[in-house]
Amino acid sequence: MLRGLWGAAAGMITQQQRQEMLTNNLANVNTPGYKADQAAIRAFPNMLIAAMNTGNVPKGVAPVIGELTTGVYLQERMPNFRQGDLVETQNNTDVALLQGVMPTNEENGQPWALFYTVQNENGEVRYTRNGNFTVDGDGFLTTGDGFYVLGTDGNPLQVNNEWFNVDGDGMITDEAGAAIGQINVVVAEDPMQLVKEGNGLLRFEGDGELPTGVGNAAVNYQLQQGFIERSNVDAAQTMTEMMQAYRTFEANQQVLRAYDESLGKAVNEVGRIG
Fold first, then answer.
1. Residue 168 is part of which domain span?
2. What is the pLDDT of residues 74-88, one digit of tens each?
3. Which parts of the sequence belong to the Flagellar basal-body/hook protein C-terminal domain (predicted)?
4. Same domain membership, residue 96 and residue 34
5. 62 with 92, same domain?
6. Where are the beta strands (DSSP E) in the chain?
7. Alpha-carbon separation of residue 116 from 3, 19, 205, 239, 274 (angstroms)
8. Which of 4, 39, 222, 257 could pair covalently with 168 via S-S, beta carbons 3.0-4.6 A apart?
């Protein structure tokens, strides 16, 4: 019976974690470039239950009772790097990254993913799909949170003012047509090695840094100035999944309550001398 309590409690914890993940997705439905998280839920190994003290059991009767499940757990949260819809903003500092058909990773079947490179407050390289850029007081191109957008040379891009032009390859020119630099676009052949850090930033868990996709014939992309990439969260689907998670949580809660009542009766009533 106690194993049943543990199994029901594990189911409740798993659905609570899933609900928190879905709530976070829904909260970022309007965050440019946000990639929705997906949950991978797995079951603990089953146990094979057999009867004890079966010496007096008639021959031919198997002592094996059957399998006992030991609960489930949320193994990991994985971002879905599917391309979000592009929306025109007519804001000159907005630059959307439109990803074309990409090769697929042979190990996990995930398509390659593309990202901008930025520099966080500690000077470390991070990655993002949020092209809702701005120009700071020193004329540098930054994200909305003030992180420098990096060029193909690895340095922050100084555009001086917001009246710059970006072509499809990311080349930046000023009002007079003079070249300023090129926005770096990197390629993640295994996007599952990227971990969310908050503020729309991703950290690469592999060795070194992600390689640039600029000049890579296998990489297909286009930058579009005056557009942003919307979040790829499907609000209707997320609401449906939240309701499913809530109902599954309630079902486990009822099972837990039933076990608790049975234990209460076992303690208070079984063996009572009337």
1. 86-229
2. 888 889 999 999 999
3. 224-268
4. no
5. no
6. 37-43, 47-50, 64-68, 72-79, 86-88, 95-99, 113-119, 125-128, 134-135, 141-142, 148-149, 165-166, 171-173, 179-182, 185-188, 194-198, 201-204, 221-225, 227-229
7. 49, 30, 16, 30, 77
8. 222
